[in-house]
Each structure stands twice: as C-alpha cells, then as structure tokens.
UniProtKB/TrEMBL annotation:
Residues 169-311 form the XdhC Rossmann domain. Residues 15-69 form the XdhC- CoxI domain. It holds the Pfam family XdhC_CoxI. It comes from the Bacteria. This is XdhC family protein. PANTHER family: ALDEHYDE OXIDOREDUCTASE MOLYBDENUM COFACTOR ASSEMBLY PROTEIN, MOLYBDENUM COFACTOR INSERTION CHAPERONE PAOD.
Amino acid sequence: MQHLDLQVVRQAAQWSRDGLPVWLCTVLCTYGSAPRAPGSLLAVNGQGHWVGSLSGGCVEEDFLERVGAGEFNQAVAVVRYGDGSDNRSNIRLPCGGILDVLVEHLPADCATQAHFGELEAALLGRRRLLREVDLRSGQCRLSDDHSQGPRVEQGEHYVRLRIGAAQRLLLAGYSSVAHFCAEFGKGLGFEVVLCDPRDEVMDNVVLDGIEIRRELPSLFIANGGCHRDTAVVALTHDPKIDDLAMLEAVRTEAFYIGVMGSRATSAKRRERLRRIGELGDAEMARIHAPIGLNLGSKTPAEIALAVLADILRTRSGIAREAL
C-alpha cells in the first residue's frame, strides 16, 4: 500500500517537472485534538491543485484561498491554525485542536526536483533522512538518519524532519498475541505484514487490512522484507518460526527486534542463537527478549499492548529507564 506521504512527494515532483511552483506544507505540532499527526504532508501547485492532508478539509481550503490571493510567496513560513491568533484566518478545527504548519515555497527547478527524488527514495525505504529546514532562509539540508526519535524536532531557527518508509510491523508467525498486535498496529498506522506458512494455523485466520503471506518469516526477511522503519516481532513459541526470524532480522536494519517468552525460555533461546546462529554480543543486544514493557500483562491483548508500547518507546528514542 502506497502511503500518503509518498503520493504527495511524487505528485509534487511531477508538478515541478511540469514547470509549476509547489508549496510543500508539513504539520509541525498539534495542540489538543487534531486530525493529522506531526510530519503529515500537503502539496499545492500554482494552479490551485493539491494532494495530501493537514486537517481533513477546512485548513486545506483556507490555505488554497490564501495562496491564490498571493500569500506565502516567501521561501518559508510557519502558520498556526485553530486558535484565532492569525487575523487572516478564522479557521476553527472541529475538535478544538491547533496546528502549526511549515510552508515552503519551492520553485520549479532542477534542485527542487532532485530534492523530491531524495525524499521519494527515503519514503521507499532505501534510506532514512533528516531534513533540516532553516526558518530564516528556507534553505534545506539532507543527511542520513541513524537514530530514532520524534518525527518533528524544532529549534529556534530550524525544523528537523525525519523522512523514512511507512512504519512496518512484521509479525513472524500467527498466535493469539500476534492477532492483537496486528489489530493494534493497524490502528497505530503501521503497515502490518503477517508471515506464517502453517496451513493448519492460518486457514481460519481473518485480519482485515493486514497483508498475510504464507511463507516463513525468515525467508520474507532474507528477501528484503525489512527496512530501517520495520519492527520485527516473533510471538509463536515455535523455534522454527521464532529463532529463524531472529537470525535473519539481526542482519537487517530493523529498528526493533523482539521475541516472546519467559526469562527462562529467553535464556535458552539466546544460547541456541549463539550456538547455532553464531550471533555475537552486538547482534544479541538488538533482540528484545523477553519482549515488551513490564506492564504485568497476562492476557493476549495485554501482552500485545506491552509489545506495541515498547515498539513505540523505541521508535520515539526513549530509554526504558526514562519511563
């Protein structure tokens, strides 16, 4: 499934190639209830066409009117919607929220098109980028992103944006816990992929909106199924599924790798992975086992909640001891 940011960047690049200037808008932060998360994109061209979303409708219409009236011709601006502080806009968001939006006016030139090409590569999972925009000059700098953290970071004179592929949750094998992880992950906006070759397990499984692949998760991973924005979790208690998935996952750039089991089971698995897979300390340190935050979870839904909470903690760059 092509996620919305990729559609925005591809369309904006095409407009630029067609000789049209582009206004690229990014949600920087939200206060209260807001319909779109920080980092969400909208692109508008010089003919009033747009792609993407900031709010679900009302902000987009107001912004188009203001662009048509000749506003936002400077290289960069930050505009707030929702609290009435901008006299040029009386927009009130339906849920009472407030949005701060970065607006970049990008000319139709080769530099802009090359820039969009770099963003497209990042959104396809080929690399992860930090996109830093100078709020005084509008100049933008791209660098490789090797860390986890908030999608948007703001300083006094800059904005730093993390650009990467759609967050993927790869479930290595089906179980009752994996079922809830799939549902929770989908609700949190992850692209969820479930891999399990076992017909006796999968024949009656129904998961709407989840990509189900009847193959060993280790094969899916070995064939390029993971990128830097992938979380790999193994939740079956079947070593043929779980252990092989771990052996392949540590060879990728997945940002989270975890496997379910008690402390005793996890210790035995670690010994097997060292002995059979010849994994070293650095590779073993990447595996979260036992998986998840210690929430006192007992039921499958509670365990899944603990797993997704730990994935979100890691994605946000928060150490466990900081909780």
